[in-house]
Amino acid sequence: MSTKLFIGSLPWSVNDAELKTLFEPYGNVQSAKVITDKQTRRSKGYGFVEFETAAEASAAINALNDTEVKGRKIIVSEAKPKN
Hints:
Blueprint: E1 3-8, H1 16-23, E2 29-36, E3 43-51, H2 54-64, E4 68-69, E5 72-73, E6 75-78
Antiparallel strand pairs: 1-3, 1-6, 2-3, 4-5
């Protein structure tokens, strides 16, 4: 079963491909999506990355949480399910 991660405090310039590239060293990335405003199409500063296994997701959290990407410290945690 896949595990989805929340990535917060992303630099505005990061796109889906860059997000995927950032997380690929830690496992098989099934999807990587930067959330954008529907009208302006600008990044909202957060996104989601989905890994194939919980172990891969955990490795990414341990390696990337509170690290700097393009001058901003990102937050990496397990995504909370939608209500």
